[in-house]
Design brief:
heterodimer, A: alpha+beta, Ubiquitin-like (UB roll), DNA polymerase, domain 1, 2 domains, five-stranded mixed sheet, 6 helices, 38% helix, B: alpha+beta, Aldehyde Oxidoreductase, domain 3, Aldehyde Oxidoreductase, domain 4, 3 domains, seven-stranded mixed sheet
């Protein structure tokens, strides 16, 4: 057991848990941020992606102890931003959401990509989102959505 | 049409993107007991001793379950209508385990950690038995996978466990031997299709609690809530009236959640302890202990005249159902029933074979459901025949394929597990699909190949496909529409949205029929206490069967509203004009809003509500032509899929954007099956591909251009002219890609997946032969 302090969706939080606990479980069970999804538990699918200090990370393979003092943003935190709204609208317009289970991770990955590269090419989007698996859409709609968001949200990233 | 055939965003996408609670585990009780399963490390074994006392003594363990806790009551997990066409060959827990990953015991504990620790404390001794691991030698093997006296079929399906048969089947039209003898050109080839994993992103999971009325309330990530309720009741001998199943948002299914999974163990734990419990499959369990697509071997013979008229199809099939016979017969039959009618001008057809038990992870329902396997075999062999005849494969198909108004005798002979229904194709735009696809892929210019230099060659290939729209006279769907004050509606449906968008398209159908907008139709689906019957999301039934029920209900509700307005104005019903918003007669009018408020609060008060049911009397097939352009590197065997062109006839697209999503999602799963995906076992029966590292599904980087278009088509019997679209997309990629590879480099790959290694080895073999 250890006391771990970090920033979670813009709030200072503190929790006393084993430092080896998975960040994913802490987010879902202790903070009730259930928008973070578990698809595989081994860092392969990207459904549990969150931002840690602006970097995209799969929270299923992050031990709680490593996030001391860091800034974590989940889909719930990101959903309050203008950038999320632009991405959300683009995903809706392009039909990029089917079952939706991969979508929170996909949006976090899109945010991370656009933060680094506000106007990516198709190829750059493919590479940027290649850590997030989707079994429903066939991907092209998601790529179009990110492209459209990068245009419509010009200046936000 | 104002709402139907519009590319409206799905009604639930926004909430999901905000990360709102929606899925099964988001809704579990926070302090649920965690249920974990002790799984067999052996492909086949008898449990000779099981001692749970140490596990039970561990602090935090609530319950340990073994076969001794269950009455011997065989059932099938298949999740089909009743009586099921699958053998009742499964017990909740048994004293035999039949594949690596089969259930040997279960633990319920306060935390996952304790549950896992308790599993290790179960003292279990197995008598390891010789397994059956080769499906081609399973039939009449001396080792039998099932020897339990209680297991049985519900009606004749060719079930014979003494020969390792879960099912067997034979049909013929005409005299196939004679037709083949008379044929001037005959080809003969065996094809193998592999097991494929569904890989829906949300793993199987379920949670249960006893509600305040002492009823068992279950949230389940399922495609078949009504069947799940029935199976729980039957398998556990628990009153049906005391079970409520709620299907929340489901994170993908593709057939993988048609069968029941953890529900029986979780229900048992919650009934016995009175405490909430939950079970979430690990990704490894999803791979090892749910099920995959049935692997099959096809031995196929085709006969034709030398001017290219197909005369005979003769096909023997062995299908591997693994340890349990879920969907054994029906998947087998669909391999012909939803493939062979494509060539309806033949003199004779024979289709027969066996579905065998082995000690592998079971097989079950998966998008395509036999049709994708059959399509690979038939559409590959048609191209082989074309090559032998020296006829362009597009022209051959144009000459021999089914057309509008035509029928095939197979429709009447083969249903799903039973006899079928005679059907004439009232909508079939295959001719257009083939013509348009050939244009877009530049068939005339590129067929068969174009050398690109640098060891690369471009090839094109194609295949045609059909599916169905529900199971006629079996699948029933119902819809309830309720008018509220302020003039908005509730649409209550048993139909099961698993991500394909059925809540949205059914609301579109309702809104169109009611003359209202989508926001005025509030959808609630798949809650066995509140929503009416629906078989669930399978057999491409929702748009057609559930859609027809919704359309009927919408029309009836509209009429009820008009009837009420006629009473208000004291005029004849015929004198009311209604546009969905305002009800008018001569000089008087009332808005729906005012009428509905009046009906609730003021005069002649009543609740307007209708429930309508529908079952199909036929299953109009959607059709498609798939064309693919590939570049093959002759030195490495690597294939780049440049463009996959789908021209689809699914009747009216209720929502063109969601329909495109269904087709393209199906195409990419089909490309996965054709090129990469394969469930692999060691020689000892252990699954190798049990994580996403080892089981590769297509990622963004492998998918280039997808071109998807819909034919202008209208199916009179469908809601606003619609047929199904959920499965058709997966059917063509295996054959179209195999044909494109042949056209590009002259090697015929007959065993899926078509890997670079197989292509390269075949190229080397061919070169050896030529030298």
């Amino acid at each position: 057991m250890a006391k771990i302090k970090f920033t979670l969706n813009n709030k200072q939080v503190e929790i006393e848990k084993s430092p080896t606990a998975r960040l994913l479980d802490i987010l879902r069970e202790d903070f009730d941020f259930t928008g973070v999804k578990e698809g595989c538990g081994e860092g392969e699918c990207g459904a549990c992606a969150v931002l840690i200090n602006d970097q995209i990370v799969n929270s299923c393979i992050v031990p709680l102890g490593t996030v001391e003092g860091k800034n974590i943003v989940t889909i719930e935190g990101f959903s309050k931003t203008k950038r999320h709204e632009v991405l959300r609208n683009a995903f809706e317009e392009e039909g990029a959401v089917q079952c939706g289970f991969c979508t929170p991770g996909m949006l976090i990955a899109s945010e991370s990509l656009l933060n680094k590269n506000p106007h990516p090419t198709d190829e750059e989007i493919k590479i940027g989102l290649s850590g997030n698996l989707c079994r429903c859409t066939g991907y092209n709609m998601i790529i179009k959505a990110v492209k459209s968001a990068s245009k419509k949200g010009d200046g936000l990233w | 049409m104002k709402v139907v055939n519009q590319a409206l965003p799905s009604i639930d996408g926004k909430g999901l993107m905000m990360g709102k609670k929606a899925y099964t585990d988001d809704l579990a009780e926070p302090n649920s007991l965690i249920v974990k399963v002790l799984r067999s490390p052996h492909p086949y074994a008898k449990i000779v001793k099981i001692d749970t006392s140490k596990a039970e003594a561990l602090e935090g363990v609530e319950l340990v379950l073994t076969y001794k806790d269950f009455e011997r009551r065989p059932f099938t997990r298949a999740g089909q209508g009743y009586p099921e066409p699958s053998p009742h060959d499964k017990f909740v827990l048994d004293n035999y385990v039949r594949y690596i990953g089969d259930e040997a015991a279960a633990v319920a504990a306060l935390t996952e950690k304790i549950a896992i620790k308790a599993l290790k404390l179960i003292d279990i001794e197995y008598e390891v038995l010789e397994p059956v691991l080769d499906f081609e030698t399973a039939f009449e093997n001396e080792v039998l996978v099932h020897m339990e006296p209680e297991i049985h079929e519900m009606f004749p399906i060719g079930f014979n466990p003494k020969k390792n048969l879960a099912a067997s089947y034979h049909m013929h039209v005409g005299d196939v031997s004679k037709s083949l003898e008379e044929s001037e050109v005959v080809i003969e080839q065996s094809f193998y299709t592999q097991a494929q994993a569904h890989v829906m992103l949300e793993p199987h999971n379920v949670n249960a609690r006893m509600d305040y009325q002492g009823r068992l309330m279950i949230y389940s990530s399922t495609q078949t809530p009504i069947h799940i309720r029935r199976i729980i009741s039957q398998a556990l001998d628990y009153p049906l009236s005391k079970i409520r199943i709620i299907k929340p948002r489901v994170g993908g299914g593709f057939g993988g959640k048609q069968a029941i999974h953890g529900e029986l163990l979780v229900s048992t734990v919650t009934i016995k302890t009175g405490k909430p419990s939950k079970m979430i499959y690990t990704r490894k369990e999803v791979f090892e202990s749910s099920y995959s697509r049935h692997p099959m071997r096809f031995d196929i013979k085709l006969g034709a005249t030398k001017d290219g008229v197909l005369k005979a199809i003769d096909c023997f099939v062995i299908s591997d159902t693994g340890a349990y016979g879920e969907h054994a017969l029906t998947v087998f039959m669909v391999a012909a029933a939803k493939v062979f009618p494509l060539y309806n001008k033949v003199d004779s057809v024979r289709f027969h074979g066996n579905v065998v038990y082995t000690n592998h992870t079971p097989a079950g329902a998966y998008r395509g459901y036999g049709a994708v396997q059959g399509n690979f075999a038939l559409e590959s062999s048609i191209d082989m025949l074309c090559h032998k005849l020296n006829i362009d494969p597009v022209k051959f198909r144009q000459k021999n394929m089914i057309r509008e108004t035509e029928t095939s005798p197979i429709f009447k002979i083969m249903g799903e597990g039973t006899e079928g229904i005679e059907m004439f194709m009232e909508s079939c735009k295959l001719e257009y699909c083939v013509k348009r696809g050939a244009e877009l892929v530049k068939w005339k210019e590129l067929f068969p190949r174009k050398e690109l230099g640098n060891s690369k060659v471009k090839g094109v290939g194609m295949a045609i496909a059909m599916q169905g729209s529900g199971i006629p006279y079996i699948d029933m769907a119902a819809a309830t529409i309720k008018l509220n004050d302020d003039g908005f509606y509730n649409l209550l449906i048993g139909a099961t949205d698993i991500g394909q968008g059925s809540d949205t398209i059914l609301a579109q159908i309702a809104a169109e029929a009611l003359g209202t907008t989508l926001d005025k139709v509030i959808v609630y689906s798949s809650d066995t206490d509140l929503t009416p019957y629906d078989t669930g999301a399978y057999a491409s039934s929702t748009t057609y069967v559930s859609g027809n029920a919704v359309l009927k209900a919408g029309k009836e509700m509209r009429q009820l509203i008009i009837d009420e307005a006629a009473k208000v104005f004291d005029v004849k019903v015929e004198d009311i004009e209604y546009d969905g918003v305002v009800l008018k007669t001569k000089d008087k009018e009332i808005t729906l809003k005012d009428l509905s408020n009046r009906l609730f609060y003021n005069e002649d008060q009543k609740q307007l509500q209708v429930t309508s049911s529908y079952y199909g009397t036929k299953s109009p097939p959607p059709f498609m032509a798939g064309f693919v352009e590939i570049d093959v590197d002759k030195e490495t065997g690597e294939v780049d899929i440049i463009d996959y062109i789908s021209i689809v006839d699914c009747g009216t697209t209720i929502n063109p954007m969601l329909a495109r999503g269904q087709v393209e999602g199906g195409i990419v799963q089909g490309i996965g099956m054709a090129m990469y995906e394969e469930v692999l076992y060691t020689k000892k029966g252990k699954l190798v591909t049990n994580d996403l590292m080892n089981y590769r599904i297509p990622t963004r980087r492998e998918i280039h251009k997808l071109t998807t278009e819909f034919a202008d088509s209208y199916e009179k019997s469908g809601p606003y002219g619609a047929k199904s679209v959920g499965e058709i997309g997966i059917d063509t990629p295996p054959a179209a890609l195999a044909n494109a590879v042949y056209n590009a480099v002259g090697v015929r790959i007959t065993t899926l997946p078509i890997t670079a290694e197989k292509i390269l080895m075949a190229i080397k073999e061919k070169e050896k032969g030529e030298n």
